[in-house]
Amino acid sequence: MPRILSCGISAIACLISLSAAAGTGEAESCRKVRMAEPGWNDLAFTTGVATTLLDALGYHAESDLLGLDVIYQSLKNGDLDAFLGYWDPAMTAYYEPYKADGSVEQVRVNLKGAKYTFAVPTYVWEAGVKDFRDLQKFADQFEKKMYGIEPGSNQLMLDAIADPELGLEGWEVVESSEVGMVSEVGRKIRNKAFIVFQGWAPHPMNAMFEFEYLTGGDKFYGPNFGAATVSTQVRRGYLEECPNVAQFLQNLVFDINFENKGMGYLVNDGMQPGEAALEALKAESQHLDAWLANVTTFDGKPALDAVRAKLGL
Question: Fewer beta carbons within 10 angstroms: which end of the chain, N or C?
Fold first, then answer.
């Protein structure tokens, strides 16, 4: 006689329980987990943690480097399964159309205490650039340039330039990459030159450089210097199709200190995301207890022991 389980708690928990009861593990179609991140070190690190753990659970997790607009279109088209990097409210404009048509679903907030807005070196702030409205007063010193990250991820800078209230007509967004931007910030600071750039936390830049976040950007980045949360999102229907991965994604939550350390391995030590993830997990393996609760390996075995054995933790 088959075991009968109550599904009163949640559909996902029920599906996981049914799978475990049957001893079947996850469906074969769920073995490959397709993820992406836009080249930001915080998301490269957290995605590296996720793919490392999923691989240890017997999945084939992969991550592509894509622009934000491509990530969302790929989730909608079913070409990607999960994205760990929805910054709210900074990325609201990117997500809104996909939220409206239901093609991208929210899983959970995976980081609190983040922030994201314009920043300048401390000596520039002390010279009088303390607010978005101060930028135009020093246009010549800035050479009418602001420095962003990869193309497709600087829309809020472009929106600020387009806002007539800020007087930034004729300004240019210099787009490169996160690494390229941080390198340029370092060069400008060494030369005591003016620069305004995309600043955010968590990121090792907060320890590498002396800089200040600008006020006046609430219209674009939200209040309190772009105070933000970061959330995990998936393509429509994925939580029901792959309930074991869904449980893992629901469990996966980070903190600022853990991410700062992990990103430091990328930025300062030149590690690849998988290497940084493993190093961080070795240092703080206690996170695994919560991250792997009610999760199994791909073939239905207990997750915690399998991951510790696979990763040598």
Answer: N
Q: Do residues 291 and 146 make contact, with C-beta atoms less than 8 angstroms apart?
A: no
pLDDT in tens, 67-83: 999 999 999 999 999 99
Query: Which DSSP state fits 296?
Result: B
**Distance separating alpha carbons of residues 307 and 313, to the nearest angstrom:** 8
* 311: Cα separation from own chain's centroid: 23
Q: What is the three-class DSSP state of 118? A: strand
Per the CB < 8 A criterion, the answer to whether 274 and 52 are in contact is yes
Q: What is the pLDDT of residue 9?
A: 39
- pTM (two decimals): 0.74
Q: How far apart are CA 216 and CA 127, in angstroms?
A: 17
SS3 content of the chain, % helix, strand, coil (to 5): 50, 20, 30
The amino acid sitting at 110 is N
Q: State the Cα–Cα distance between residues 109 and 127, nearest whole angstrom.
A: 38
- Here the tokens at position 135 are 């930028």
Tokens 């030159």: give the residue: 193
- At 120, which amino acid appears? V
Write down the residue that tokens 């996981």 correspond to.
16
Q: pLDDT for 112-138, tens place per residue?
A: 989 999 999 999 999 999 999 999 999
Q: Cα-flanking dihedrals φ and ψ of residue 301, to 5°?
A: -90, 165
Cα separation, 213 vs 196, in Å, equals 10
Tell me the per-residue pLDDT of 39-49, one tens digit each, with 9 for 90 and over. Answer: 889 999 999 99
